[in-house]
Amino acid sequence: MEYISTRGSAQALDFEGATLAGLASDGGLYVPREWPRFSGEEIADMAGLPYAELAAKVMAPFVGDSLTYERLLELTTEAYGRFAHKAVTPLRQLDEQQWVLELFHGPTLAFKDVALQLLGLFFEEFLSRSDRNLTIVGATSGDTGSAAIDAVAGREKVDIFMLHPKGRVSDVQRRQMTTVLAPNVHNIAIDGSFDDAQAMVKRMFADTAMTDRFAIGAVNSINWARLMAQVVYYFAAGLQLGAPHRAVAFSVPTGNFGDVFAGYVAAQMGLPVAKLIVATNVNDILHRALSTGDYSQGTVTPTAAPSMDIQVSSNFERLLFDLGGRDGKAMAAQMAGFEATKAMQLTNAQREGASALFQSCRADADEMASTIRWAWENCGELIDPHTACGLFAARASGLDEATPVVTLATAHPAKFPEAVERSTGHRPSLPARVGDLFDREEKCVALPGEYAAIAEFVASHASPRA
């Protein structure tokens, strides 16, 4: 399996190379040269498999010769052995049509664990084959940071620098990052938004003064391996609800488009997906793009769902590339226009291709709160604000009642206790395994939202590439 850049001019890489590189050298994102596809019979044969074995089967075509199947299975078994629920991503029924896929049973209580626990093992496996050191630079709107830090804390040959917008993540999210005191972990609170942090990370990948000295790697969903691991839980849910003989719809709360793009990949691989519902909060660039073709950057509005407070959705480029005929030169020109003007219109081919599988919905603060309340009062389920955006969109989807709709529950409600309590009168408790979070010491550096300051800090604390 070869990986190519969405912008057409970077060297093609194998899975190991794409995993360690993160962002392509031309600024694009890596995607497989072609989508592997399972037959209906092959999908049916996956029913009932333990999650780790299902993960190995779904991911094997993407991994290619970089790992043997046996070694891949060992890594998935190790990664998912840390989850608090034996099913890893259990499915719960709310009513006749609505289901919730709980993706928060990992170490940091968010869906990012499903991919990042495995990505940390991939890094360790591939780095052990050489004398190379890896400098991970990431941006987080809340959950990626803690999941990535947990996955690589204390690992040899890896330093991680995680940027988060100061004051714009929840107390639980912040502490899950800043209380990890391993010497290879560096938390940076910047003045600005997540989009500002993400832009600085992308700039560092293009900064030869940094890339000549350090092997810069990515844990954000710009890293293909992270998206690949997220494809698995679409298969897990689909199989439980009747795949390949029955199509299932998924409602996905998203800001950066990575989680829902994984559903698109599952559909390309043969999983019968009735519809992918893109659920946003008031930071609705994706809703506007899918409903009107207008992909224009607005001002980030802080909300009770901070992981979705994003106005530039990096992974959307992967979809536009695939729907636009995989023309790297055209994609590079389209993204250059967006980066220059902060505005872009989707082409007719992109809009028509997206409409076949996607629909979108925007939830404001009142709709988010009322959905948290509905789930508690009618189903006895506490859900967090991000999941509430997804469930609001699922219930408003207008899909045929015979089609099950699975909302991805992306975070444990205890990560956002104030918002949940305001809506339900019930304050969720942290699971016992993280119950002492607010008693732990924090370590974090505050820096201005200026690239020079970030680059200087990374350069003074990271290990050179070799």
Write the layout of secondary structure elements.
Layout: E1 3-5, H1 15-21, E2 30-32, H2 40-44, H3 51-63, H4 69-80, E3 91-93, E4 98-102, H5 112-127, E5 134-139, H6 143-152, E6 158-165, H7 171-178, E7 185-190, H8 194-205, H9 208-211, E8 216-217, H10 224-240, E9 248-253, H11 258-268, E10 273-280, H12 285-292, E11 294-296, H13 316-323, H14 328-341, E12 343-345, H15 348-355, E13 358-362, H16 365-379, H17 385-395, E14 405-409, H18 417-424, E15 445-447, H19 451-461
Parallel strand pairs: 4-14, 5-6, 5-8, 6-7, 7-15, 9-10, 9-14, 10-13
Antiparallel strand pairs: 1-2, 3-4, 11-12
Helix pairs in contact: 3-4, 3-10, 4-5, 5-6, 5-10, 6-7, 10-11, 13-15, 16-17, 16-18
Can you give keywords for this protein?
alpha/beta, 5-stranded parallel sheet, single chain, 42% helix, 6-stranded mixed sheet, globular, 466 residues, 19 helices, Rossmann fold
How would you sum up this structure, described in words?
- The chain starts with a strand and ends in a 5-residue tail after the last helix.
- Helix 16 (365-379) packs across helix 18 (417-424).
- The protein has 19 helices and 15 strands.
- A six-stranded mixed β-sheet has the order 3-4-14-9-10-13, sandwiched between helices. A five-stranded parallel β-sheet has the order 8-5-6-7-15, with helices on both faces. A two-stranded antiparallel sheet has the order 1-2.
- With 466 residues, it is an alpha/beta fold.
- It has helices at 15-21, 40-44, 51-63, 69-80, 112-127, 143-152, 171-178, 194-205, 208-211, 224-240, 258-268, 285-292, 316-323, 328-341, 348-355, 365-379, 385-395, 417-424, 451-461, and strands at 3-5, 30-32, 91-93, 98-102, 134-139, 158-165, 185-190, 216-217, 248-253, 273-280, 294-296, 343-345, 358-362, 405-409, 445-447.
- 42% of the residues lie in helices and 15% in strands.
- The protein has a domain at 91-109 and 224-424: Rossmann fold (3-Layer(aba) Sandwich).
- This is Threonine synthase.
- It catalyses: O-phospho-L-homoserine + H2O = L-threonine + phosphate.
- Its EC number is 4.2.3.1.
